[in-house]
Amino acid sequence: xxxxxxxxxxxxxxxxxxxxxxxxxxxxxxxxxxxxxxxxxxxxxxxxxxxxxxxxxxxxxxxxxxxxxxxxxxxxxxxxxxxxxxxxxxxxxxxxxxxxxxxxxxxxxxxxxxxxxxxxxxxxxxxxxxxxxxxxxxxxxxxxxxxxxxxxxxxxxxxxxxxxxxxxxxxxxxxxxxxxxxxxxxxxxxxxxxxxxxxxxxxxxxxxxxxxxxxxxxxxxxxxxxxxxxxxxxxxxxxxxxxxxxxxxxxxxxxxxxxxxxxxxxxxxxxxxxxxxxxxxxxxxxxxxxxxxxxxxxxxxxxxxxxxxxxxxxxxxxxxxxxxxxxxxxxxxxxxxxxxxxxxxxxxxx
Amino acid sequence: xxxxxxxxxxxxxxxxxxxxxxxxxxxxxxxxxxxxxxxxxxxxxxxxxxxxxxxxxxxxxxxxxxxxxxxxxxxxxxxxxxxxxxxxxxxxxxxxxxxxxxxxxxxxxxxxxxxxxxxxxxxxxxxxxxxxxxxxxxxxxxxxxxxxxxxxxxxxxxxxxxxxxxxxxxxxxxxxxxxxxxxxxxxxxxxxxxxxxxxxxxxxxxxxxxxxxxxxxxxxxxxxxxxxxxxxxxxxxxxxxxxxxxxxxxxxxxxxxxxxxxxxxxxxxxxxxxxxxxxxxxxxxxxxxxxxxxxxxxxxxxxxxxxxxxxxxxxxxxxxxxxxxxxxxxxxxxxxxxxxxxxxxxxxxxxxxxx
Lengths: 350, 355
Known about the structure:
The complex is a heterodimer of chains A (350) and B (355).
Chain A: H1 2-5, E1 16-23, E2 30-37, E3 50-53, E4 66-76, E5 85-92, H2 104-112, H3 114-118, E6 122-133, H4 166-179, E7 183-188, E8 194-203, H5 205-225, E9 227-230, E10 245-250, H6 252-255, H7 259-272, H8 274-280, H9 285-288, E11 303-305, E12 312-314, H10 316-321, E13 326-328, H11 337-349
Parallel strand pairs in A: 1-5, 11-12
Antiparallel strand pairs in A: 1-2, 3-4, 4-5, 6-8, 6-9, 6-10, 7-8, 10-13, 12-13
Chain B: H1 2-8, E1 19-26, E2 33-40, E3 53-56, E4 69-79, E5 88-95, H2 107-115, H3 117-121, E6 125-136, H4 169-182, E7 186-191, E8 197-206, H5 209-228, E9 230-233, E10 248-253, H6 255-258, H7 262-275, H8 277-283, E11 306-308, E12 315-317, H9 319-324, E13 329-331, H10 340-353
Parallel strand pairs in B: 1-5, 11-12
Antiparallel strand pairs in B: 1-2, 3-4, 4-5, 6-8, 6-9, 6-10, 7-8, 10-13, 12-13
Helix pairs in contact in B: 2-10, 4-5, 5-10, 7-10
Protein name (chain A): Glutamine synthetase
Subunit structure (chain A): Homooctamer.
Pfam families (chain A): Gln-synt_C (PF00120), Gln-synt_N (PF03951)
């Protein structure tokens, strides 16, 4: 069967397979289906629009179920390889209106604003996630009915008793590089069975596209491994770290000499809209942002240099160089990167 | 799960110039190894050309939460046997943002000793014999031993073959090839006297590279045991009683020792070592008193002795060295959980820099 899965079709035919991917009705579930195209395509605007049954994803009523898919970004398919592609799409009504769960549309408008475009907004998103054993939904590597030894040995660790699921993480790293995603690194996290990958620096709307496709590739890989992927911000209550999606941000002005002043101004603006941001930063974040486990309390806005207990952290290098970027540590692992990246941008620049 | 292997084994060199660099450092206990990876835009072969990086020291017991950044300085590059292609493993040491080595950074002080002109001139060679024990996961009982019981007494296991005598050879053999691939100067392997215990040797390596190579070999070994679902221990006496401990015998020579007449230099050096027995022992690894009992091919921890071909001595000189009147000596005292930066630099310092 592997021989069939790995068939290199480029010798027999020009046809390619395009997997169209979209975000479903919960705002977190990823869906996809594939179609054959007569020849390779590398430009999203040249791909045909498509549609799917929105009544099966909670996105349309049964009597008027077609939801239209607009292709927005193309990536190489690491599973089918050859000239086959993955296509990140967003969703519209037949009349051409973005459906309510389409968060990309509003984000794209913000990123198209000339003030924003000029500032070349860069994002680096640190996506944390937890791997769970299938059927029991207990973290990978944890004894069923019990707990591993307390946190301490696991962060960036190696060894069969400290690192669980590395083959998934490593396969994901190479698959994303292959796909053309700007994946900048990976590390094992403080809670055993938890990992992180980083995407960036990506400009504007592509940050959201790349994180969503990276999430898609990750869940396809955990599917192959028979392991369950969770983006829950606090999968295990108690003295176990939560999972976040720290979002690093900079503009052209912040990256230029003297940029540190611009950074401080932006942080000041963010401090005034703490509640609005928190509401948009992911469901269940109140279970994670407690003020313990390297988080700031959800009701408090705090910023500091090298302070992992702050809402916003500025790196020592940025402080020393007088320019750079800042890290918003508030978004939870189940945040929507279109929402978070565009909101930080709007608050800081508009 | 060959679909997963296809992805893990993807050869990216045909799609991109980008490479993955795994930065490796020693954590807060002085023995736990940590690592994380980053993408670089093009292949790099020189450590000075690699960017410094940082990590969360509050998660490894190396910094407080409110000031958690610890800086990683790349010191040595090896080829990555797991990711292959142009991907690399990078041995680093750790500093405060102000540029001072943090307390657990033993490489910094060792590098100073190895940069001393007297030491450089003598081209210090090290051959380190790293012993280690493999344990079954969850029960932490040696690999191949019956759970709740013991194997037959020592005798049949040293360098043996057979399913009833040799446990974990696939780990040992893949480690051997992986280290050669990585560019580590691994000189050999053998099965040890206690069943489930093995040894590999790294060397001859010059100066600071002995420490870099041994730490990298340890990293690769624990990555492999992780793949095998087996636990690695460097404890010097994993099982009390009539079972051998695990050491890291350190073989040493200088230019003068390797030249004609070197045997006299060796004897003088051993004498100097004897005068600092207590200081060396204190730096030669935690728990060594459980191992250095005077039995099981060790010398008692409180006694300094040396002899030709004597495995019960603190320092052993080989028959070849005695015959050729030049060569090297073997310090048998370091335990398997020693820090090679500490041991190698201390031996160099005692024999070359102190009166």
